[in-house]
Design goal:
Length: 180
Amino acid sequence: MNGHNPEKARKRAGRRVNAVDVCIIIIAALAIAGAGLRLYTVKYGSLPGGAPKLENYAVSFLVSDIRETSADCFKPGTMFYVEQSSDVFGSLMDNVAVTPAELYIENERGEYILSYAVDDEDTGDDGRVDVRGTVLASGIMTDTGFLLDGNTYIAPNKTISIQSTEIVVNVLVTDISKID
């Protein structure tokens, strides 16, 4: 025997790291670092050491089917906050519209038709109303949506709960536009 053991040689060859393995490890490390950097910039709005640049936006919303007396809480200048995080939602602007609540009622043919809520004079109940308005908000627009106050993600057609000193309501975000 010449001292050559083929089984030992096979084991050593299987443990060898080649150039392809090194490339795969480097690519995986870069992918993880890139994902972490992306998450950080989405969450904080900038890289470490840089302050997020908050800009002013008009955030339009709809509050559906609330009591008419609750609509009185929507006065221009009122500050609203996101209920879950206490981030500033924004200051209510002057363009508040209160309209009778839109209701869809099924007719005798099974079709849904648009109707509007009215006051019930027999019981003295207030009518139901919809409130449309716009708040002046600060935030950052990203590829995935708007970060309210740099923290809370909102987008059109997203429902969030907001509060003021007088009321807590769910609002449907209808539009977000930059104010120049």
